[in-house]
């Protein structure tokens, strides 16, 4: 994966510190988790509607969760921010969405665990769109304009800030507005003149073009945000500790779903057609994300935290934790950190 840091974060120091404990961990690997007990088998997953989560939808469609002894219910939500409070109350077991909201919550004192990665930013999967007849034709034309996102202080806010900064424009010179209904409603709202531009994810980038003739102003997979980790599967640490068998079974099924998503685009298109109720003209044309497999890449997610600090989405009081990597480390299992440390160091 080609990565470029968004901030001057001393990752090498973090990796060296982690590596010291990796040898002993490797010589005594943890035993595979047993399938969950019956009381753990029912899991509610809150998920944003996006092609990024194809691994989840495939795992459900193909019976991969059932094979692991799980009964999974998927609830659609407009953004990760929309359900954090419910998740902290125990009303949601796992959420599937942007890391940004969870890093913010972790910095504020919540305790979440990233169970598995969902997607990596790829060309065409996160973009800014305008109407077909919009006078906005360059990034500079966005100054003073309204840009819609699906969640306040979200991955959309982060990527827009990175894009504007890359073009020498302060993010404070645009007005970012949240559409509480999320991606499915945003192409129609844009066409109706609610805003000047909108941040969209696939398959709703394709919906915007196919149904409304809207055009892509900028692909957000560029510059410092190139290949940025976007979404993951997140539980509270309390839930993960209380249900280790269910958590492990969920991850096994997700990894199988991710592998299918990477190798079989037809399965991705079929799953999105089913869960988002979209026509073939959309699912056939939509661009697919990257679907990571393997332990959570703390170094990759550290790029997200560093960017959040850079653009004021985390406070100066969080700077030390971000710069030393301990904020992200607190969200990732120690085994994942060890298994990834040497691989990241030798990239």
Structure description:
The chain has 347 residues and is of the alpha/beta class. It has 2 domains: 11-120 and 228-345, Periplasmic binding protein-like II (D-Maltodextrin-Binding Protein, domain 2, 3-Layer(aba) Sandwich); 126-225, D-Maltodextrin-Binding Protein, domain 2. It has helices at residues 11-19, 22-27, 54-61, 64-67, 84-88, 99-107, 155-166, 186-191, 204-212, 237-242, 244-263, 265-276, 280-283, 298-310, 319-323, 326-329, 334-345, and strands at residues 42-47, 71-76, 94-98, 112-120, 126-130, 146-149, 175-178, 197-201, 215-219, 229-236. Helix 11 (244-263) packs across helix 12. The radius of gyration is 20 Å and the shape is globular. Mean pLDDT is 86; it is low at 1-32 and 335-347.
Tags for this model:
alpha/beta; single chain; disordered C terminus; D-Maltodextrin-Binding Protein, domain 2; five-stranded mixed beta sheet; 347 residues
Largest sheet: 5 strands, mixed
Strands, count = 10
CATH topology of the largest domain: D-Maltodextrin-Binding Protein, domain 2
Low-confidence stretches: 1-32, 335-347
Supply the number of helical segments: 17
**Mean pLDDT over all positions:** 86
Fraction in helix: 40-55%
Number of domains: 2
Structural class: alpha/beta
Question: What is the beta-strand fraction?
Answer: 15-25%
Assigned CATH architecture of the largest domain: 3-Layer(aba) Sandwich
Task: Using the CA coordinates, give the radius of gyration.
Answer: 20 Å
- SSE string: HHEHHEHEHEEEHEHEHEEHHHHHHHH
**Shape estimate:** globular
Strand order of the largest sheet: 2-1-3-10-4
CATH homologous superfamily label of the largest domain: Periplasmic binding protein-like II
End-to-end distance? 9 Å
